[in-house]
Design brief:
The chain has 10 helices and 5 strands. The chain has 214 residues and is an alpha/beta fold.
Length: 214
């Protein structure tokens, strides 16, 4: 339902952080905090129980960390979009989190209104790449899908891939290219197969690395 608020699960080992996030998000008319978890394992269990739309996940937590939790959610085919909210900016943390399935990566000092916007963005199906994160990705040389594989893409598939990297949903891509959503879905499936990528997030990362974005 279009009127239904975005259901959010908070996963962070610091209670004060969870409390601060909840206090801010609960005043947003279109966002509802449905639960909290103090580590990755509990976060996965709560995500399966509550089926939130978006999970706000820290990376560094005792026990099961955020990256392992992301992998488990993917294995369970949980549909929740995961937005990493962390104080860690190191490349060795950013890249694995995004490859594990995160839909975006923001820092804990983010402006509250910007955080609400980030939640809405990933819920809409966009991939949220801040400039610092994109820079870390561009420095990587070992991401899935080598440059040579890109030569197998058709011109239309390259257009679709560029729009995925710009954060467009299938509906927005269909409008931009004057195609049906079904056709766009087919192009996306072909792109993932040809590049040997798991999802739209990895496709967006591939496009950033190989210059398919403006």
């Amino acid at each position: 339902m279009a009127d239904r608020p975005i259901r959010v699960l908070l996963v962070d080992d610091h209670q004060v952080v969870r409390r601060g996030l909840r206090t801010f998000l609960e005043v947003q008319d279109d966002i509802e905090v449905v639960g909290e978890a103090a580590d990755g394992a509990e976060g996965v269990a709560r995500a399966e129980e509550l089926r939130p739309d978006v999970v706000l996940m820290d990376v560094k937590m005792p026990g099961t960390d955020g990256i392992e939790a992301l992998k488990r959610l993917r294995e369970l085919a949980n549909p929740a979009r995961v937005l990493i909210v962390t104080s860690f900016t190191e490349q060795r943390t950013v890249v694995p989190a995004l490859r594990a399935g995160a839909s975006g990566y923001v820092y804990k000092d983010i402006d509250p209104d910007a955080l609400a916007g980030a939640i809405r963005s990933v819920h809409a199906g966009h991939v949220l790449l801040q400039p610092e994160v994109a820079g870390a990705l561009l420095a990587q040389d070992d991401s899935p899908g080598g440059t040579g594989r890109g030569t197998t893409l058709t011109e239309r598939e390259r257009e679709v891939l560029g729009l995925i990297a710009d954060g467009r949903s299938n509906r927005e891509i269909a409008r931009a290219l004057v195609l049906s959503e079904k056709t766009v879905k087919t192009h996306v499936s072909n792109i993932l197969m040809k590049l040997d990528l798991a999802d739209r997030t990895q496709a967006a990362l591939w496009a950033v690395r190989h210059g398919l974005t403006d």
